[in-house]
Amino acid sequence: MIYKGIVDITRSGMAFIVVEGKDQDIKVHPANLHTALDGDEVAVQITRQLKNSARSEGKVIKVIRRKSTAFSGTIEMNDGFAFLVTENEMLPDIYIANENINHAKDGDKAVVQITHWGDQKHSPSGKVISVFDKENTNDTAMKEILIENGFPLTFPDKAILETGTLSAVIPSSEIKKRKDFRKIFTITIDPADAKDFDDAVSILKLKNGHYEIGIHIADVSHYVIPETALDKEAYDRATSVYLADRVLPMLPERISNELCSLRPHEDKLTFSAVFEISPDTQIKNCWIGRTVIHSDHRFTYEEVQEIIEAGDGLFAEHILTLNKISQQLRKKRFDHGAINFSSLEVRFKLDENAFPIGIEIKESKEAHQLIEELMLLANKNVAEYASKIKVNKQHLPFPYRVHDVPDDEKLKLFVAFAAKFGYKFDISSPEGIAHSFNEMLQRVKGKPEQLVLEQLGIRTMSKAVYTTDNIGHYGLGFNNYCHFTSPIRRYPDVMVHRIIADYLAGVAKQDKSMEKKCRHCSDQERKAMEAERTANKYKQVEYMQQFIGDDFEAVISGVARFGFWAETLDTKCEGMVGIQSLWDMDEFVYVDSEYALRGLRTRREFRMGDIVKIKVISANLDKRQLDYELVNEYNQKKPVSKSKKRVK
């Protein structure tokens, strides 16, 4: 049996092929990847069924599409040729013929485009396409991460030229086509450092005592026209990428920060979902269509939070009303089956050279929830509206945002683990599972097992994806859901706007390629998340370099056969305690059902959620890796480093 899927390589080096529509991923040993790398689309052949498991094992027989064809690394010169040495353990050094070195010198950081992928016996070969500035290592590292994940650093000339021809003047003829909200009180609420304001909210008290609340979204589709170079580049990227010290935008800055940004005291074109809501948050009416707005003020989340807590301040009456409604919507959502996983956001404080000088943990507060709930309301109702659209008696292909029920095998393991702490689960229905999760999350707050159960609970969840198959969004508890509210930074939102606009204009048509577009956007989202995680890891290592030899309290955040990961409690920086460094204590074996390492002689256990004291041993920026050791329990042995095999 042969399947097509996406390679997902775990931290341990084991690979799994994620196949759409198949309940279980296919396990593939590194030796059977046949040059495939993390994120590649491949054809995989089943070789055997694993005992006592629904999972099968296979081997890659063909790479269908590469996640990336360009890689960054260090140039090693030889006599008449060179190699690019990368930090990717799965990728052999890349051979570069003399005519393709492009003036690069020994030791240069460079980007190489693969021209031939080689095989198990021969290295891939390529050509140098750019050389980084040696002096700015921080900037180089971030650019390398973007390139590794397949994101181009610049926009094509054609896309920039098209952007330059777009007019900032809104013709009166365009305004006449739209519902005019310019005289309705409207604000934006965003992070303090935001430059692209893609959503705004308006509020008007009606004569019947109800409220008209408008969720207004930048009308990117007015400026970005299908089949243009600008549209093609936006689709290829599919998402903006947010790293610790920069944003790689999906659209050129003139669009994202100027034309489409809903800046205060300027007329702006928007696509809106407008609701009539009673004081007890009953939705009485919903209107969806193109609009024009004029924002009265730009707020930061911090400013709005101060007003909420003080009960007073600029436009306090409007903000407090919006907050009251959003909190009621939030309560209803959880009452109807949404799962209430808490979210902590880690942010780096950076100096003028983008070097991390501190780490702050930001918790979601009511100001964030105000915007979150209104955006969820818009996304849900736009998806519900789209689900009823038919053309020639057929539903339109539409990019829904879906989230499946938890993986059965992962859920059973988690339920058994949670039971050891006294938490019982009803797994007889999806509703029962959601209720059990919420009950556990409420009861576990402030207890020693909180972190481990929250982390493992999230890991049982399926991944949200874009698809035309509308199975609903389990985590949010919605039967219909899509992304409508961030078209500046997400291409699926642009597609949603176009479909709704075409339907309203009476020109809706079936797009048979919609599912393919959805898969592409899901793939790009995954790559962007990986780039963000990698960049955060680099900043963690960069930050912790100053603390080598220092002790920290940490929580065990992951366990594997070769050791465990520990995350410092105050700085949230994760490092590895290798199993070889524990040999002086005992011989440890991995117990997967317990998420623990257990000593054969002492029965000493290291399990997820345990608090330990660690010492920072090394901080390797090239490998983006932190190594820790347990304090005062054993003598640290030198870490064993893997060396890559070079073939030609």
Write up what this structure looks like.
- The structure is a single chain.
- With 648 residues, the protein is of the alpha+beta class.
- It folds into 4 domains: 64 residues, OB fold (Dihydrolipoamide Acetyltransferase, E2P) (Beta Barrel); 66 residues, Nucleic acid-binding proteins (OB fold (Dihydrolipoamide Acetyltransferase, E2P), Beta Barrel), CATH 2.40.50.140; 252 residues, no CATH class; 83 residues, Nucleic acid-binding proteins (OB fold (Dihydrolipoamide Acetyltransferase, E2P)).
- Helix content is 28%, strand content 30%.
- The chain has 14 helices and 33 strands.
- The chain has a 7-stranded mixed beta sheet with strand order 11-18-17-14-13-12-19. Strands 3-2-1-4-5 form a 5-stranded antiparallel beta sheet, with no helix packed on it. Strands 8-7-6-9-10 form a 5-stranded antiparallel beta sheet.
- Helix 1 packs antiparallel against helix 14, helix 8 crosses helix 9 and helix 10 packs antiparallel against helix 12.
- The chain is globular, with a radius of gyration of 26 Å.
- It starts with a strand and ends in an 18-residue tail after the last strand.
